């Protein structure tokens, strides 16, 4: 049985003619770690709030654990507190006057769980999140990462079938975000809890999710594994959204040597746009046979610590490449930027990605 199912779910706010969520169909399986990913305003947080019951859909149906919690045609709406879900907010939402233990125990007390059971659950949650030594401290005495662990422990102690997480790492610095990503992976692996995680950070989604749902303007653009979404994007939006440095985009109708090269490249028949991942771009005088190749001038070499970014120009636009070894080019060099045909993403006029069979046709 699926943990969550959304059928033709839509949300339109009063006074607006635009759907924040536009007839969304989505199934979250038991044990999934599903990430809703997209830019600000794409509808991902609204979708999470609809699942939680904090918002009511204007169309469609939502089932949790096989039971209907929202069904607009039938007038069904189950309140958030009766859905049995755990929610971790972007803000930690901790009681400042309660200790760590008391914060974790608070929800169990409201549920009238017996004291012995509360103690067992709280102790287990504190140990799982490695915050047992801080049980008697107050939130103000903790770091941001520790406070986030308390918020997660509070949710875990309630033993929800599903955890909903709304950008829970956005307030942390880079190192703490990295630590907490590993923490979420461990929690998911050890507890098997179904998780739905909202983020605008592609690397959070790539490193955490079993499946990613890429959204834009209230609609799903693609659902798939992290590898599929990155390497086999459904359309140009997904391809450009995923990746850093971003995708190199070449328009057949554009200007510069890259546009001319695309217009002349036999591998691009039927495509109006090509996309090159920076890690697929190489800079040498002699491209491999059949590759998409553009004459460029090297503009800059940018070391990032463990890798280098190569910035080149075709006379009209910048083309970026990345390398994990020291690049064999220097600023001012004239060479070719190229990628093997298998690594070139091709798009039709409507933005959909062309498969090899469609290109060949």
Report on this structure.
The chain has helices spanning 44-52, 100-110, 115-128, 144-157, 174-191, 202-208, 226-231, 236-241, 257-264, 356-360; strands at 4-12, 19-28, 33-37, 59-64, 67-71, 76-77, 85-88, 162-166, 194-199, 211-216, 219-224, 248-251, 273-276, 282-284, 292-303, 308-313, 318-323, 334-339, 344-347, 353-354. A hairpin with a 4-residue loop joins strand 5 and strand 6. The protein is an alpha+beta fold. It has 2 domains: 4-237, Rossmann fold, CATH 3.40.50.300; 245-360, Beta Barrel (OB fold (Dihydrolipoamide Acetyltransferase, E2P)). The relative contact order is 0.11. Strands 7-8-9-3-10-11 form a 6-stranded mixed sheet, with helices on both faces. A 5-stranded antiparallel sheet has the order 2-1-4-5-6, with helices on one face. Strands 14-18-15-16-17 form a 5-stranded antiparallel sheet. It has 10 helices and 20 strands. The chain is globular, with a radius of gyration of 24 Å. GO terms for molecular function: ATP binding. Residues 4-242 form the ABC transporter domain. This is Iron(III) transport system ATP-binding protein. Keywords: ATP-binding, Cell membrane, Membrane, Nucleotide-binding, Translocase, Transport.
